[in-house]
Write a structure and sequence with these properties.
InterPro entries: DctP_fam, TRAP_DctP, TRAP_DctP_sf. Belongs to the bacterial solute-binding protein 7 family. This is ABC transporter substrate-binding protein. It is a single chain. The chain is α/β, with parallel strands linked by helices. The chain has two domains: about 5-150 and about 240-280, 3-Layer(aba) Sandwich (D-Maltodextrin-Binding Protein, domain 2); about 155-240 and about 285-335, D-Maltodextrin-Binding Protein, domain 2. It is about 45% helix and about 20% strand. The protein is globular. The two termini are about 15 Å apart. The relative contact order is 0.18.
Length: about 350
């Protein structure tokens, strides 16, 4: 039986680290500082995972490799950060995997609406052959994949009205991430889809430039969107695996020993981050209620209407991503469900 990729990486990395220490090869680890940029604020599970990764790298390198964190999009939005990784001016990032469709079109498959029923299914797919095949395609784009983190299921907020029916979304101006499938998804639901970089989102909500946005509950909480949004609906329309990436220029410039440190740290940080993210999700909705947000659920019959409305979007991106790729993905999802 195929072992879980994360656990394989851990086992291999632990053995490699022991060999490294035993052989006295630590001299192959140079002093360097790696910049790690991401969009969410300190305290968010994304930031907690980044801090864990930084701590692990420092410990495993004997303090020679420092990872400096840049939270909250202070070095730019996701697209800018990816470009900076390709240029080698930023070394590390973690972002919604679907955004990478601008580099490798197949990554758009992760953003197909209502794809996963659970995080467990997503882990099985991303850690398995499908997820690793997509990561390998990034090598020619100046990026090297280290693993997949968890952001959770995305839900909808707005400042206008409670949403309890599929038709309630129509007419709302909704900020979406800078990915074509998100634009088409909310356009299909009757919204005015408005792509914006994440650092611009809070001001846009505060100034009523947009009516609402969609993100996991943990992001909604940590970004304090409850200050500028009244209503939250548990649509669970997309699950976001996040891609942990290192600049290919940086990676290619590392020794074998340095690469082993990074791989082991990323594998351990991945397990930590997923647990932190899913644990935080359990309490985030309660905290948003206490902050004054009005929570709505979508009844099953209305969820069915949402699925029907977005089916043309699923068909469109299945064709553009490639029917074979989507078929492979769905086969892996079905395998995970069994």
């Amino acid at each position: 039986m195929r072992k879980n990729l994360i656990h394989r990486l851990l086992a291999a990395a632990v053995a490699a680290t022991a060999l490294l220490a035993a052989s006295g090869a630590a001299a192959q680890v140079k002093e360097r500082t790696l910049k790690f940029a991401f969009q969410n604020q300190a305290g968010h599970p994304q930031a907690l995972g980044a801090q864990k990764f930084a701590d692990l790298v420092a410990a495993k390198s004997g303090g020679k490799i420092a990872v400096k964190l840049f939270a909250g999009g202070v070095l730019g939005g996701d697209l800018q950060t990816v470009s900076a990784l390709q240029g080698g001016t930023i070394e590390l990032t973690v972002l919604n995997a679907g955004i990478l469709s601008a580099q490798v079109k197949e990554f758009a498959a992760y953003d197909l609406p209502f794809l996963f029923n659970s995080a467990k299914e997503a882990d099985a797919v991303t850690d398995g052959p499908f997820g690793q095949k997509l990561m390998a395609k990034l090598e020619d784009k100046g990026l090297h994949g280290l693993g997949y983190w968890d952001l959770g299921f995305r839900n909808l907020t707005n400042s206008k009205r409670p949403i309890t029916k599929a038709d309630d979304i129509a007419g709302l101006k909704i900020r979406v991430i800078q990915s074509p499938i998100y634009i088409d998804l909310f356009t299909a639901l009757g919204a005015n889809a408005t792509p914006l970089p994440f650092p611009e989102l809070y001001p846009a909500l505060d100034q009523k430039a947009v009516d609402g946005q969609e993100n996991p509950n943990t992001t909604i909480l940590s970004s304090k969107f409850s200050e500028v949004q009244k209503y939250i609906t548990q649509t669970r329309h997309i699950y976001n695996p996040q891609a942990l990436l290192i600049s290919r220029k940086t990676w290619d410039g590392m020794s074998a020993d340095e690469k082993k440190i990074i791989e082991q740290a990323s594998a351990e940080a991945t397990l930590f981050q997923r647990a932190a993210s899913r644990g935080a999700a359990d309490g985030a909705l309660d905290a948003l209620k206490k902050a004054g947000m009005v929570v709505s659920e979508i009844p099953p019959q209305e969820t069915a209407k949402l699925r029907a409305k977005v089916q043309p979007v699923i068909d469109k991106y299945s064709a553009s991503v490639g029917e074979a790729t989507v078929g492979e993905l769905m086969a892996e999802v079905e395998k995970a469900r069994k």
